[in-house]
């Protein structure tokens, strides 16, 4: 596995995230393994996503969910543009963020969250290549959602999509197609929302050489031993 996306690009990689804090984010996971352990995992997951941004050979953007988090984001990655998310549900926030970025001149945008550590440089390169012939490219999640959504075009209205449900991926695909987008699906991975996802992550990352993934794997293995 390569550890860096090597082709120079004008495409921007956008991380939609929350600043990890006790009781903020990963609520299902926290209810199952405890808030402190869930926070520890959330911090490692964010590190994995930042690792992907550092390996991206184009513009990078961090979009935290709180307006006062841009100082924090800039400390994490000074080279990244920080645009805080606006109010509204996730679809509304993505629409507003996409509008702002395209208003700044960006035309090809790839969006990720901080909960899909199995994404690899090969996945990003495959999506980037698919954008040469398709308007919109999605990487599906095992639970029916998506772990990456990329487009050359502004997103259609996403406000009424069934976010955080197994129907999201299909609904997003059909919404884009109805808006006239040519859509390509580029593989399926998993995201980490609850305890049952942790063994999947440990298995997927077992041979991953990337430093942040190694640290996450160590945390997952330690958690498994404590709970054995």
Give an overview in words.
The protein has a 7-stranded mixed β-sheet with strand order 3-2-1-4-6-5-7, with helices on both faces. It has 8 helices and 7 strands. A hairpin with a 4-residue loop joins strand 5 and strand 6. The radius of gyration is 17 Å and the shape is globular. The longest helix is centred in the first third of the chain and has 21 residues, at 35-55. The chain has a single domain (12-194), classed as Spore Coat Polysaccharide Biosynthesis Protein SpsA, Chain A (Alpha-Beta Complex), CATH 3.90.550. The chain is of the alpha/beta class.
C-alpha Rg (nearest Å): 17 Å
SS-based class? alpha/beta
The SSE string, one letter per element, is EHHEHEHEHEEHEHH
Report the uncertain regions. Answer: none
Q: Order of strands side by side in the largest beta sheet?
A: 3-2-1-4-6-5-7
């Amino acid at each position: 596995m390569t550890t860096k996306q090597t082709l120079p690009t004008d495409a921007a990689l956008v991380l939609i995230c929350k600043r990890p804090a006790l009781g903020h984010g990963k609520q299902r996971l926290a209810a199952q393994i405890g808030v402190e352990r869930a926070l520890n995992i959330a911090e490692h997951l964010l590190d994995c996503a930042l690792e992907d941004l550092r390996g991206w050979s184009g513009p990078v953007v961090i979009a935290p969910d709180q307006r006062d988090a841009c100082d924090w984001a800039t400390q994490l990655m000074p080279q990244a543009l920080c645009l805080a998310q606006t109010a509204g549900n996730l679809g509304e926030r993505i629409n507003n963020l996409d509008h702002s970025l395209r208003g700044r001149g960006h035309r090809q945008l790839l969006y990720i969250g901080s909960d899909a550590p199995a994404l690899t440089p090969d996945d990003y390169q495959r999506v980037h290549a698919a954008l040469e012939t398709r308007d919109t490219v999605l990487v599906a999640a095992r639970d029916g959602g998506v772990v990456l959504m990329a487009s050359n075009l502004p997103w259609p209205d996403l406000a009424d999509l069934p976010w955080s449900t197994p129907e999201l991926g299909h609904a997003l695909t059909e919404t884009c197609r109805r808006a006239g987008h040519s859509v390509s699906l580029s593989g399926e991975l998993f995201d980490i929302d609850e305890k049952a996802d942790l063994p999947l992550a440990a298995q997927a990352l077992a041979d991953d050489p990337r430093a942040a993934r190694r640290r996450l794997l160590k945390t997952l293995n330690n958690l498994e031993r404590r709970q054995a």
